[in-house]
Specification:
Order of helices and strands: HHHEEH
Number of strands: 2
Number of helices: 4
Radius of gyration: 19 Å
Largest sheet: 2 strands, antiparallel
Strand content: 5-15%
C-alpha cells in the first residue's frame, strides 16, 4: 500500500522531497501531497506528524511524550513477561 511505502521512506531519511517520493512511487506530486495529508491525519492521532519544510521537503517527527509512553509500556510488559517466565520455570 502506497501510504506505508511513504511512511517507510520518511522514516528512512531525515528530510525527503515530494518529487523524490513521487518518482520513487511512480505517482504525481499532487498524489503525494494528498497521501501525506491522509498519513499525517493518522499519525497525529498516534504520536507523530509530518512536517512540511518549505523549499526543503518533508520530515517525520515523533513526539517524545508518546515515544516515552511506549517505552514505559514496553518495559512494564517486559517485566511482567519475565516474572511470568520465571514462574513457569519453577513449575
Amino acid at each position: 500500500m502506497r501510504i506505508f511505502d511513504i511512511l517507510h521512506l520518511l522514516a528512512a531519511q531525515q528530510i525527503i522531497k515530494g518529487e523524490h517520493l513521487a518518482n520513487e512511487l511512480n505517482v504525481s506530486t499532487r498524489t503525494i501531497r494528498t497521501d501525506l495529508k491522509e498519513l499525517d491525519t493518522f499519525l497525529s492521532e498516534h504520536g507523530a506528524t509530518i512536517k512540511s519544510l518549505k523549499g526543503t521537503g518533508y520530515k517525520l517527527e515523533i513526539w517524545l511524550k508518546h515515544y516515552m509512553s511506549a517505552v514505559t509500556r514496553y518495559k512494564a510488559t517486559s517485566k511482567i513477561c519475565a516474572k511470568f517466565l520465571r514462574l513457569m520455570d519453577y513449575h
